[in-house]
Amino acid sequence: MHKITAVLLLIALLFSCKSEQDPPNILFIFADDQCYNTIHELGNQEVITPTLDELARPAAGRE
What we know:
Layout: H1 2-16, H2 50-60
């Protein structure tokens, strides 16, 4: 019951905040047994990850 109340309160709080700027785009990627250095763009030379590299370049400012 407390979890439902907390979630509803959080949703109400998020919708009550008015901002004149667009909110930032946030993307969460959940992967099992993956850490920051298993992506090719971040230094791994053994595993090629073209799709994740494409997502990582703009985030790291390497466009």
